[in-house]
Amino acid sequence: RPITNTEILILNSQMHPTPAGEVGELYIGGISLARGYHNRPDLTAASFVRHPFSSDVNARLYKTGDLGRYLPNGQIAFIGRRDHQIKVRGFRVEPDEITTVLDRHPAIQSSVVVGRGDNGGERQQLVAYIVAAPGQELTASSLRRHLAKSLPEYMIPTLFVRIDSIPVTMNGKVDRAALPPPDSSNIVREQAALASESAVAKDLTTILAHLLKLDNVGCEENFFLLGGHSLLGMQLISKIQETFDVELSLLTLFERPTIRGLGSEIERLMLEGRKGLADVP
To answer: What does the pLDDT look like over 157-169, one tens digit per residue?
Structure first.
């Protein structure tokens, strides 16, 4: 709650008050509000805005950049910083909301969620960095199930990365720039990545591991949940045609995003091709 002689408003992008429970930006007003930044008229103009609900034309609100929402008891819950917001598949996502849910998992000691350019760099994907509680093992599927109980599908991270500790700056804030890039040594995978069996599946494993920059890919692991995307998918389809002399559509990859699923479809097409050649007089 605001202190004496201080006013706190939670407003949306149109400077309208947000309903209880809806996230908005925190604005501070009142007689104790500063006049602006010393010798920084540009920052003052950007951060000290006219009070939209005051009859005093000189009244100002300070635009904090912090996000929050009203709780049912009237208190304000801090959600995170506006400058940490990212856009994922057309949705605005506040990573700290995901972190809050992740930290409720009994096997997680702490976490941080950030947006990273995917392997092709054409769009943002959510990456969760996890510090596991001592002696705890995690799998990507168990983390997704935990998050899905509280969050919509578009807020479920694409990748989970296990780290020993979350890096912080000298000011004690999370140092997002120091977080390591996801790779085969730190990505949280499924508990048992089943090995591929057939010759086609083994060749597919090699192709996928190269494209995804992983040491190995289990036959039931989902291409898209390992960091794959449509651009890499097109490269995969091209490599499959070059290797097996069969044509797959991108739709097939979406419908069968595992080595087992793709392998069975490739084997079916190869068999049909051989039958077609045998029928030629």
So the answer is: 888 999 999 998 8
